[in-house]
Amino acid sequence: MASTSDIRKGLCIKYNHDIFKIVEFLHVKPGKGPAFVRTKLKSVTTGKVIDNTFSAGHKIDDVRVETRSYQYLYADGDTFHFMNTDDYNQITLEKSSLDSPDLLKEGQVVTILFNTEDSMPLSVDMPASVILEVTHTEPGVKGNTATNATKPATVETGARINVPLFINEGDKIKVDAEKGAYMERVKE
After folding, report:
1. CA atoms within 13 A on the CB side of 188
2. 35, 39, 105, 151: most buried by Cβ count inside 10 Å?
3. Cα gap 41→122, rounded to integer Å
């Protein structure tokens, strides 16, 4: 049993007869009344995201998890195939259990959380950022340089990301995996 003071991003808890992963949280201490914790919870079984507020000191059932490194192999429709980097066993996961499946590149290593009680995969943690090549974007128009002007671009995984006007096809860019947003251009 844990309490609200133990809440952190990525913690898996049992709530309403399901297992949820904490996506966001905020400790709030209002000037009047008791403190509370506002959370955004994502179901690891359905992928549904809910908002919930826990009062300060509320007891929560945390789920014991272990992390393992897996390499992403390929996608087959809505099924994604991964291989354990230690013993080469393969597992398949549904698209709904992935946070940002459109940014997964073949050969990329991710961390998968497993429930220690039944060895079921709970969620996939992507690296903080991924480097992808731009496969299609319109050329930037000269003189069209208002502050923070962006244009849509398609990267090698098929994801669409807004990029600055100076990015061209063939450029490699660093993308924030959590937000799916452009971070910077990568020099070779």
Report:
1. 5
2. 39
3. 13
Neighbours of 2 (CB within 10 A): 13
Topology of the domain covering 129-186: OB fold (Dihydrolipoamide Acetyltransferase, E2P) (2.40.50)
Per-residue pLDDT of the chain (188 residues; tens, 9 = 90+): 778 888 888 888 888 888 888 888 999 888 888 899 999 998 877 778 899 998 888 888 888 888 889 999 998 888 899 999 889 899 998 887 777 888 888 888 998 888 888 888 877 888 888 899 999 988 876 666 666 778 889 998 888 999 888 888 889 999 988 888 899 988 87
Domain segments of the chain as ranges: 2-62, 65-125, 129-186
Predicted TM-score (pTM) of the model is: 0.71
